[in-house]
Amino acid sequence: GMQSHLQALLSLYKLFCPELVTITLPGKKTYFKNSEGPWKAAITAVRQRNQGTSPLSQAVFLSMPQPRSRKRKWNAQLVIPSSSAYTSNLGEDLSFTSKSFPVEQLQTFPQLLQNIHHLEFPSRMGSVLTNPLLLHYMNCIKDESIYLRLSYWMGQMLQEECTWCVVDKPCEEEFRSFLETIYKAECFLQEGFSACEEFLYKTLPLWDGVCCRSEVLGLVSWIPLSSFSDVKSYLYDPLAQLFFTSSIYFKCSVLESLKELLQNWLSGNVVQADLESS
């Protein structure tokens, strides 16, 4: 296959022994990413912030592109918009609307039970996080497309709003509120979001252990069960760096979060075992 490390090796052969390489290689010169890039960007961002000369934002996400400028706040996405599919004034759409229930009219649990197979999710997936009825729907109807849409939106918002990864006059209180909203939704669903797991693995090495501490550790407690090698390198190692140099309160908070993580894993395994046995 045309992996970057193989291309780099073949390019060396083609340079010194061109008769040995007959295939055409793409004309790119950088085959490996600079691992020090994010750290250099983070140090530069902190230096500019302390000097008060930070006219432009700098993204220090690990191998992540520069976030686009935000035109709308994340909390503007938490309101369910009017359904564009509900147009009963058109005669040709009457047959369609008789089968679909406008999600903005969903107010009670009996309505959810009666129309659970006729709901169309809103265009703003963020509104699901603050709507218990739609969270109930996600628990009952395991529609992969819903989780994919929510994961994509959440990943984008976490990247753009992260206080310690983007230096653009970030508001810690808004980001704290966003993480708290996600955490409450995870507690309601009794499962973690894959977008949060990816976000934590990428940003914990850059986290100072202070900003949004309780919210971040709350998300840590809902990381989905995965292989121990991934958890050790992406979760335990970054936390250990902070653990050994922080206060006793932080140490206790980390241990409490990891205890809740273990409890959630055990609960998930019990449920899965019950489903398999039945």
Q: How would you characterize this protein structure?
A:
- The chain has a domain at 122-277.
- It is mainly alpha-helical and 278 residues long.
- The longest helix is centred in the C-terminal third of the chain and has 30 residues, at 248-277.
- The protein is globular.
- The chain is built from eleven helices and no strands.
- The chain starts with a helix and ends with a helix.
Task: Give keywords.
278 residues, mainly alpha, 0% strand, globular
CA-based shape: globular
- Described by its quaternary structure, the protein is single chain
Question: What is the count of helical runs?
Answer: 11
Helix content: 40-55%
The N- and C-terminal alpha carbons lie at a distance of 43 Å
Strand content: under 5%
Q: Give average pLDDT, whole number.
A: 78
- Content-based structural category: mainly alpha
Number of strands: 0
H/E element string?
HHHHHHHHHHH
List unreliable stretches of 5+ residues: 53-66, 84-97
How is the biggest beta sheet arranged?
none
Task: Return Rg in Å.
Answer: 24 Å
What's the layout of helices and strands?
Layout: H1 4-16, H2 37-51, H3 94-97, H4 109-114, H5 132-140, H6 144-161, H7 172-189, H8 194-203, H9 213-220, H10 228-243, H11 248-277
Helix pairs in contact: 6-8, 7-9, 9-11
Quick synopsis:
With 278 residues, the chain is mainly α. The protein has helices at residues 4-16, 37-51, 94-97, 109-114, 132-140, 144-161, 172-189, 194-203, 213-220, 228-243, 248-277.
